[in-house]
Amino acid sequence: xxxxxxxxxxxVILGILLGIVGGGIMGGLVGMYVARNSAPPVAAPVxxxxxxxxxxQAPAVQNLTLNTxxxxxxxxxxxxxxVVTVVxxxxxxxxxxxxxxxxxSGVIISQDGxxxxxxxxxxxxxxxxVIYSDGTRVDASIxxxxxxxxxxxxxxxxxxxxxxxxxxxxxxxxGEWVIAIGSPLGNYRGSVTVxxxxxxxxxxxxxxxxxxxxxxxxxxxxxxxxxxxxGQIVGINTLVVRDSVGGAPAExxxxxxxxxxxxxxxxxLISRGRIEYPFxxxxxxELTPQLAAELNLxxxxxxxxxxxxxxxxxxxAGIRVQDVVTAIxxxxxxxxxxxxxxxxKYHVGDTVTLSVERGGQTLKIPITLVARPA
Length: 374
Known about the structure:
The chain contains seven helices and 20 strands. It has about 375 residues and is an alpha+beta fold. The chain has three domains: about 80 residues, Beta Barrel (Thrombin, subunit H); about 100 residues, Thrombin, subunit H (Beta Barrel); about 90 residues, Roll (Pdz3 Domain), CATH 2.30.42. The N and C termini lie far apart (about 145 Å).
């Protein structure tokens, strides 16, 4: 065999070997490609809470177990037995001697049977009774009333089912959850509504320093408690605004007397049967930025004196018409603190110092408080 024939044989053998190896590799690649494209796709795992449902496939059912012993439910269970329906028989309504029966709500505040409600619920009543949450009806007596704050204290004898402590209404925050419990329309005892503190230090007509809430309040809720999640009384529901001055309808505008005011009034009514309001002897207009600008005043907060009562503490101290009282002791008179609410923290006989703006000067005038005339 010639040398050239040997090289030809070697080249042929190498070609055969390369064909075998190359064919195997290509065959493997083709097989992988075919297998990958013919097998069903594997979906990426989806979190359970966002699983999607393919067309024609029934949605998955997920059983959830809720914990019913929440703060809200526990608070209602604890407080609800202390909430009562207040029923009154008013003075005769006509010449036939027929009486009108009215109702409101109330809350028991002590083991000895003291109950808080609204003054307007019991005003003019011949007799008063309360109905407990279990339907038991007992007679009640009126300990005392205060029309200015719309608070009244009742008293029942015997054992009471429960009572609720007061909380600190000055610690309330906007947006804080609150619960209203009462007897709307007199028929739905123990009704519970939930909302938030919508506003603080609100004024409606002659009532000041009110708590605003969007917890639903209806006729019959008057006198019922506004409760925080700690199960404490933070207010006593007193009124609801349905329409504005212009006649526009309003929703979710309920108001309550703050617990700190209620507690102070209740203590005085229980101890002496009446409220002794501190008195300085002035009539005034609350200052606004617009009024301050019109009068060219340097201060934008306070009260403008319109009248000084003769022989009153203010008259004896030299207070004048057109004076502006800006503070009592160290507490400024502003949107957060009305003059009335500041004075209510003091007692008859206390001496306070008024900060008075007069003719561009600030005067410090001491005044001794007396009891408000009847």
